[in-house]
Amino acid sequence: MTFLYEPKAFIDGRWVDAADGLRFAVRDPADDSLVDEIADCGAEEADAAIAAASAALPSWRARTAADRAQLLHRWHALVIENIGALAKLLTREMGKPLGEAAAEIRYGASFIQWFAEEARRAYGETIPSPWPSARIVTSRQPVGVVAAITPWNFPVAMVTRKAAPALAAGCTMVLKPSEDTPLSSLALAELARRAGIPAGVFNVVPTRRAALVGDRLLDSPDVRKISFTGSTETGRKLLARAAATVKRASMELGGNAPFIVFDDADLEAAVDGAMASKYRNAGQTCVCANRFLVQDGIHDRFVARLIERTRQLKVGPGMAADTTIGPLVNQRAVEKVEALLSASVEAGAQIALGGARHAQGELFFEPTVVTGVTTAMPLWSDEVFGPVASILRFGTEDEAVALANATPFGLAAYFYTADLGRAWRVGEALEFGMVGINEGVLSTEVAPFGGVKQSGYGREGSSHGLDEYLDVKYMLMGGVARKISAA
């Protein structure tokens, strides 16, 4: 494998060890083998990264949008050029099948390319003035230093969705990646360096001491924005901490996505969408289908077909060519799936397929289908984050919408129907930031990604993603009217 990083922090364009010499292990969830040992950063490294980002900010934001765009295009090209090595690295530290890892690299790179182009479109405006002697103009300027905290399930895409728009807008960044998957972030930093992105613009602080480093980022008055992807519980804590310095915030938090199948749906299309939405990344995605609501008339046929297709999934190490379901990321993840499943079965749910750890190893879980689920069960109310499809039967359209909306979360939702009127009615009635209609996968760099309710706020991707890193400045220009002198 081509090595794309050093096992250290990347601060101010240099690879640095933790001042206290601490390191931590990154292990392959497929077999618990050691992938690498890297610097376990603390307060000193966090402060150094903030200082580096602050020092780099004036010259970076002073560059033209075209200059920043050119560097981002180089970064994108290097990511694509190294897709094979990056995919192998991602699979080893996270566990997802190699094909999915390569797809994530391409998806993550698409944000770098998209925002390289959007950098040129941070337009201002002129506003008709109420005063004849004045003119009103607005401009959009970079927020400043950004702190980003990213999860383990998409260790490349979750970084580029934040870093690309931030850098395109003229901001600098300090990134704290997940302790489970820091290597992909370090590789991205090395490729950014090779692309010519200046020292201090993009800094990566790996750590197992997340609270310590996070507190330094949140407490610093030099950090003007926090962008976080993770659980709602953690997001609440970060928001409370960020309030002390009134930071701008973007929060992409937990989900509990409904997947509704109406009687008039195309059965095969619905099952295709269900497989893609539920089992991608072994169910470890924030937008994956978590609750299946299937109407009475199609319920039995849908369940039978879903079980048939789920049986065909191949569980194994992500590096194996035929694997379609890799391991879960760690022991806590497996134990959570087991606990939710056990409690729901005790309450009356029936396991139609799977339901236990797989013979491949401790972190592998069988692709599972559960029927007879009710709204009182943990599988209904909690985000499973595992390969478990939980199915509830419903009768009417109004019932389906009410059941789908009966959650504090509002990230993604999906439904299948052949009725155009229903497509509009249900799409507008669902209280979610993103809705897939007759589609099971909806993520793309050209559309706004984000949720409502306790799934957070702010958007990533699209032109709206650039806005998250820009402040609007209003300038009133007086003294414009020419004085007329007496003849």
TrEMBL record:
Gene3D superfamilies to which the protein is assigned, alphabetical: Aldehyde Dehydrogenase, Chain A, domain 1, Aldehyde Dehydrogenase, Chain A, domain 2
Any one Pfam family match given in the protein's UniProt record, by short name: Aldedh
Superkingdom to which the source organism belongs: Bacteria
GO MF terms, alphabetically ordered: glutarate-semialdehyde dehydrogenase (NADP+) activity; succinate-semialdehyde dehydrogenase (NAD+) activity; succinate-semialdehyde dehydrogenase (NADP+) activity
Record InterPro entries: Ald_DH/histidinol_DH, Ald_DH_C, Ald_DH_CS_CYS, Ald_DH_CS_GLU, Ald_DH_N, Aldehyde_DH_dom, Aldehyde_DH_Superfamily
CDD domains per UniProt: ALDH_F5_SSADH_GabD
Name of protein: Succinate-semialdehyde dehydrogenase/glutarate-semialdehyde dehydrogenase
Naturally occurring in which organism (per UniProt): Novosphingobium chloroacetimidivorans
